[in-house]
Amino acid sequence: MKPINIGLLGIGTVGSGTFAVLKRNQEEIARRAGREIIIKIIADRDIDKARGIVGDDGTLITDDANEVVTHPDVDIVVELIGGYSAAKELTLKAIGNGKHVVTANKAMLASHGTEIFAAAERQGVMVAFEAAVAGGIPIIKALREGLTANRIEWIAGIINGTGNFILSEMRSKGLSFDTVLEQAQELGYAEADPTFDIEGIDAAHKISIMASIAFGISIQFDKVYTEGITKLTGEDISYAEELGYRIKLLGITKKTSKGIELRVHPTLIPSRRLIANVEGVMNAVVVKGDAVGPTLYYGPGAGAEPTASAVVADLVDVTRMHTADSKQRVPHLGVQPNLLLDIPILPMEEVVTSYYLRLQALDRPGVLADITCILAELEISIDAMVQKEPKKNEEQVDIIVLTHLSVEKNINAAIAKIEELPSVMGEITRIRLEELSSK
Fold first, then answer.
1. Which amino acids are annotated catalytic?
2. Closest by Cα among 207, 255, 256 to 227
């Protein structure tokens, strides 16, 4: 049977990993795909670097990406250059030329997925993107195929390895955020500009894609509430630990009677939960289905060969379905495009969750009574309240409040009122809390 020819855009970390996995496991991959999968042509700005990786095996090397997406012998274009505009343009050009596309580009899909999938639908080609979310963890396949019998209730995931590494090191070694960020950059876990990782943007790209598949809605990255980890302190991580919680940067999406929650922020999780014990650069995603209950997916979320594992798995899937009627293929977002639902995304102020509040107040009688009175007025129920001992020669003390489930807008109002109290010093720290129970 005729081999499937691949055109590779970019041979950086993931591209070189993809080339290595395809070459090393060539026979096994062919056996599973039903035919050989061969890299026909590679585009990279650095031709010498590309040739050094590939060697002299007859693979065509070019610095013009357009040669790949228009090459008459290429069946599948693998887009691994990242970014937005150039990647989108090349992806659409590949689709327009009748090529299937495999991509690891979550930013492109989160921002332009609707347009890209519509173009692919019109052209009768596939766009596969397992590698775009959680690296080597097959979470897209699980959501789109493995859990199709379920009504998905919620997803919560540690889906950014850089952020998880930083929080793990802060907790285990008592280091400051800035110190650990510098270490992450030295180790290659964080980019020179780490904004996407530490501000939650990368996680927001990924949770918007997962929410779309889980709930059968269009991708709506622009509606994800996003909050990073830059303001977290060692004090809060330590206090959370004392109270039986760990702080993780989570991507969360839930289907409620009022709409869909779509949010990324630091979150307290009970330390007894498996996901709370995921450390370092590892990723983990919990998916709660109505039939199966909670399921956990764990593994490396980045890296050359873990991500390549997902890229090659997509190549095998596309190869298997290459000749199938386009209407018989698994839809890009798990449901047929004309059956996507128009469910509203809840604004953050309408979200219901629990909260950790930390404030500094003067160590005087009546302070706790004032705070509890404000919370009661706004129908916020207290789960626990702890007043720490004052530090030497200081009059103010840390007060930590854990609430039961409350509406975010009520918490916002309570924070504003408590900060106005003359006995309260500075701003209140607010971190959301999720039990992630099976109920």
1. 206
2. 207
